[in-house]
Amino acid sequence: MKPIPDHLDHCLSILFIGYNPSVRSSETGHHYANPSNRFWKLIHEAGLTPRKYKPEEDGDLLKLGYGFTNIVARPTKTAAEITKEEYKAGRLRLMETIQRYRPKVACFVGKGVYEQYSGRTGIEWGPQPESLVPNVVEFVAPSSSGLVRMRSEEITAIFRQLTVYLKESTG
Hints:
Blueprint: E1 14-18, H1 23-28, H2 39-45, E2 66-70, H3 84-101, E3 105-109, H4 111-118, E4 126-127, E5 137-141, H5 152-169
Parallel strand pairs: 1-2, 1-3, 3-5
Antiparallel strand pairs: 4-5
């Protein structure tokens, strides 16, 4: 299995950060490609995209100001297969990426992703009180994996906070 490309640019509105690519994402070369993953439906229903995009259109979201990366590049069946060493190296790489590209919002798609990045526990959904990278809002959203037991409506409501934030921050 091979890693998938990041979609990065300077001054993104949102940089979506996942755990790592799924096996399906590795096979297709696109983010959130597993058919059971709800990411594309969630961000559309949250008002972040004008329509429901497909995984193979992930690069097109750069035009909307949205980028993609993962804390770990190695594809796995589940995030439980990621090693401590991979998280440690991924944390450093991710911090450098955020500092270099300076998105308005770094959206961690999964509490565990943020916990590995920040070293913090007991965090709440939504914007975090303190950012590791100054002037970048760190936002924690639930994982969009089909393995997550939260109702789609609950997850969509959390993602909708990003829509509200972006509208308020652009006037």
